[in-house]
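User: I'll paste a sequence; please echo it back and then give the predicted structure.

Assistant: Echoing your sequence first, then the prediction.
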Amino acid sequence: MYMLYYIIFAFLPYAVVIVFFVGIIYRCLSWVNAKGLTGLYNVNLGLYEHSFFSTSADVLKRIFLFYTLPGKDKDNALFAGSFMFHWGIWIVLFGHLGIILPENVLSKYFGITPEVHRVLALYVGGAGGLMALTGLLILTYRRLVGSSAELRIVNSYKIKIPVNRFSYIDDFFADFLLLAIIILGLLQTLGISPFYPSYIQSVSLWMYSLLTFHPQISYIISEPILQAHAIFAMILVAYFPWGKLIHPFSYLFMPTISRPSLKVEYRGEKR
């Protein structure tokens, strides 16, 4: 049994990281080398006449503000769910940077004492986790009940398609992984499980041992919720490049950014 634990929590994390980065590189190269209207080159083609920087600024506004989602005849549930989920996840991921280093390192070099660390984890991390969970539940509900998504087809032509029409097994698989990871994380962060707050120091020492290439699983051998949280997280990280979760990287290869504006002829006139 100990050998199995060692394989999962000492060897597997390195394999997952390799799959993650190799997968992202592979997907990016496949987008760059796409021929014709394949890959991302058949998605969201628009005749922008703006510069690269102004178009990039617009994309960043979409990423962080989701300003194109709400409004008249728009899906406000999609906006609320997307906004809460993504901002909650960003807060949680940023907070996870603080558990890569042991508490004695945080205290010595960054002035973050164990008490402050636990307060930040409880209130900031807990708030981010609850925000992400609420947003994900809203998005999952939309997917399950068949809410309609509005698609724009050339200028002002619009159609509405039920979300469940283009929801597949991989979508539900990603939702399940995210829900499991967030719920297990909240069980620990909010002190709902009996393993709070010792898990903060446990996971920090374990992750630091991985970072220094001297894996020590003894820190988490008695933390079942943390183990489950880590296993689901590793599955998600390994799956990330191969599903729709990779969409943040797709912005780098959108044709409206990476290519100049298209010139078309309309009734003999160039536009």
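Confidence is low (pLDDT under 50) at residues 37-48. The longest strand covers residues 148-152.
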